[in-house]
Design brief:
By secondary structure, the chain is α/β, with parallel strands linked by helices. It has helices spanning 3-12, 17-33, 51-54, 69-76, and strands at residues 42-45, 62-66, 82-85, 100-102.
Length: 105
């Protein structure tokens, strides 16, 4: 993705209808398949600028992973607790580190 596209994504993903509906669907699936997800450890694999990760409420551990330094720079502006640069093809975490892994665009 072009660097300028990350700035656009960061600017619109909190309020744009597409992302709001995507998060609504995500929360519905989490409610259905992992009812205690608010207290669960969740990895957002390919977190991009962090918009979806920032909208995961609860006390559970939240980790964002992305390969792009530009995307992670935007995500850091959201004050997310843990962001990691890495590839979804070779996750830099021990097995069973998370209760759920999400990956959305």
């Amino acid at each position: 993705m072009l660097q300028r596209e990350y700035a656009t994504l960061f600017r619109v993903e909190d309020e744009h209808w597409w992302y709001r509906q995507l998060r609504r669907v995500l929360h519905g699936h989490l409610d259905r398949f992992l009812p205690a997800w608010r207290d669960a450890a969740i990895l957002d694999a390919g977190c991009g600028t962090g918009g979806n990760l920032a909208h995961l409420p609860g006390a559970g551990r939240r980790v964002g992973l992305d390969f792009s330094p530009e995307a992670l720079a935007c995500a850091r502006k959201r004050n997310l607790a843990q962001l990691v640069r890495g590839s979804v093809a070779s996750l830099p975490f021990a097995p069973a580190s998370f209760d759920a892994v999400i990956s959305m665009s």
